[in-house]
Amino acid sequence: MRHQHPFAGNPLDRGERERRDEAWIATAARAAESRFLPFRNLEVLLSDLPQPVLGWLDGDRVRAAAPDAEPMFLGLADGVAHFAVALPDCADADGVAGRKGWRFEDCRTAGGVLPGPDTGILAQARSNLDWHRRHGFCSACGQPTVAQRGGQVRRCTACDAQHFPRTDPVVITVVADPATDRCLLGQSRGRLSRMRMYSALAGFVDQGEAIEEAVAREVMEEAGIRVTNVRYHSSQPWPFPSSLMIGCLADAASTAIHFDDEEMSAVHWFERGEVLRALAGTSEALTVPGPIAIAHHLIKAWATRERF
Amino acid sequence: MRHQHPFAGNPLDRGERERRDEAWIATAARAAESRFLPFRNLEVLLSDLPQPVLGWLDGDRVRAAAPDAEPMFLGLADGVAHFAVALPDCADADGVAGRKGWRFEDCRTAGGVLPGPDTGILAQARSNLDWHRRHGFCSACGQPTVAQRGGQVRRCTACDAQHFPRTDPVVITVVADPATDRCLLGQSRGRLSRMRMYSALAGFVDQGEAIEEAVAREVMEEAGIRVTNVRYHSSQPWPFPSSLMIGCLADAASTAIHFDDEEMSAVHWFERGEVLRALAGTSEALTVPGPIAIAHHLIKAWATRERF
Predict the structure, then answer these.
(1) Sign of the CA dihedral running B27, B33, B34, B39
(2) How far is CA B174 from CA B209, B215, B234, B257, B300, in A?
């Protein structure tokens, strides 16, 4: 993979075949060698010694802390089953782990300090647990659902409808104006609170839309700019709660900005030199997202004239 | 857009700003000039004279046929609001239209006969109506939901949770073996019933997965083949019920096929000459999907050595 961003790189084999066997899942969930990654209110358990890593525990510790918790199957590594599990809000990190130096951490923060493969497992686990939290009932008939296939589906206990975990495609785009050697960046209302922080324009792909159409619509809605020559760059899973960020570059076909002030607080054209300084952290006027976010890499691809 | 496939090319302005104004939506839904596209059990109303086109009606006709039907806002064309509306299963096409020569048609079939822009509107409308059919209840608490923003969200009447229409990203890939000038195509169980019909390998992007990772996992699961050099080609909205098809080409890093016989009924390497004949409809041994599906265009891109 040419561009691998944080929250990708999950090394687990998701066990598509094993998941279909409910008895296999149940046995694995009781097996002594299986490993469990606890979450509390969507914060992940980390062990800090000597460096931050995912806080895997064995089943006995998890069952002691939460006898009724339902482990969700993440996949296999070297034949060992790995699960994510949501613990009650009252769980205490050191108490659950049975030793000192463990903590529950916000997953956005954890994504910035964990090794790459751990961020990939974290993304899968957080997205899955969050989805189960919000899908205890059938959207078709309102009755309770139960998890099956280790958490890859929930089935309605009344109407038998199946519901699958969702992944929401989002387009995120750096628009270049080749004529003036500038790029278009904006501030979303509510998202980028720091005054000088600008990012690539982004939005959910709508139903009945191709990627290139979603890019054109979002840039028009947020900035009033027409685009052409939309090119895919790379993608990133973003588990807040469960987006697939589809990173693109595009060229501007117009330059006069008309931004939507309900969605955006500012949109500007930035010169290449300013953007390079912002990437290096030395700009007075501009801050851009850090390398945890695909926006950083798209902005850098434009600023450094990366070929892709 | 370099590659525009059927079900893309929707010419409507989705009216992001107008949707936020519930009074505007209510007024538009009663306006004499507004246009309504009826569906019956997810089949779309078509008018056949002289060529098949979407069967738009005015509000009076729709309200006469279904006084309680809730129109979903699709967007604007030349300032005129366009809506999709689900009619009861007993609705009669000519009766609803008030003239002869109209019919309800399966949307897959309609996609193959309608003009391009109509297929785009059809994709948005069918995906949206299907989603509303299956989301009358809150997945978080089980209580009823109501549509807002002209159908862009459903809100729970009890816990106030918002639920948004879903779009499921799917990767679909033609894998090439450069050493032998062949490509890898397969038959999914249940999907491609015709004996000689083979297509590109496809599957849903999982939570916590980049596009390139999903391609590698799906090809490994379905064919046992390792891939490298995954390149994005183009995308297509596929409204059955609401997928975003992300079309890729990749190179094989292994060649021995081990296919998953629960998911696939056959997987083979095909030579370029055979694939070119299949695209032209002159092969005895191989049939490939028609141009309504992105698979056709991916297979053609490989077979014709398209540069992209």
Answers:
(1) positive
(2) 19, 10, 12, 15, 10
Q: Does A192 have pLDDT greater than 70?
A: no
pLDDT in tens, A243-292: 999 999 999 999 999 988 888 899 999 999 999 999 999 999 999 999 99
Using the predicted structure, report yes or no on whether residue B308 has a pLDDT greater than 70. Answer: no
Closest by Cβ to A137, choosing from B137, B234, B246? B137
Tell me the pLDDT tens digit for each residue of B1-31. Answer: 789 999 999 999 999 999 999 999 999 999 9
**Model ipTM?**
0.96
- C-alpha distances (whole Å) from A245 to each of A113, A196, A211, B14, B288 are 21, 23, 11, 22, 31
Question: Which residues in chain B are closer than 8 Å to A209, comparing Cβ atoms?
Answer: 8, 10, 124, 167, 237, 244
- Mean per-residue pLDDT, A4-11: 97
- The backbone torsions φ and ψ at residue A191, rounded to the nearest 5 degrees and listed phi first, read -95, -50
Cβ-defined contact of B213 to A246 (cutoff 8 Å): no
Helices B272-280, B294-303: axis angle to 10 degrees equals: 130
Chain A environment of B236 (Cβ under 8 Å): 210
- Among B257, B182, B185, residue whose Cα is nearest residue B221: B257
Count of CB pairs separated by less than 8 Å, A with B: 184
**Does the pLDDT value for residue A12 go beyond 70?**
yes
Backbone phi and psi for residue B54, each to the nearest 5 degrees, phi listed first? -60, 140
Confidence of residue A50 (pLDDT cuts 50, 70, 90): confident
Describe the crossing of helices A272-280 and A294-303 by its angle, rounded to 10 degrees.
Answer: 130
Which residues of chain A are within 8 Å of residue B5 when distances are taken between CB atoms?
210
CB contact (8 A) between residue A139 and residue B143: no
pLDDT of residue A177: 97
DSSP state of A151: G
CB contact under 8 A, B163 and A139: yes
Cα B249 from Cα A77, distance rounded (Å): 28
Of A120, A140, A204, the CB nearest to B134: A140
Q: What element of type H or E holds B186?
A: strand B182-188
Contacts for A270 with CB less than 8 Å, ≥ 6 apart: A182, A183, A184, A185, A198, A278, A286
Q: Rounded to whole angstroms, how far apart are CA atoms B84 and B26?
A: 14
For A31, phi and psi rounded to 5 degrees? -70, 140
Asked whether the predicted pLDDT for residue B220 surpasses 60, the reply is yes
Residue A263 has what pLDDT? Answer: 84
**Which of B20, B210, B244 is the closest to A8 by Cβ?**
B210
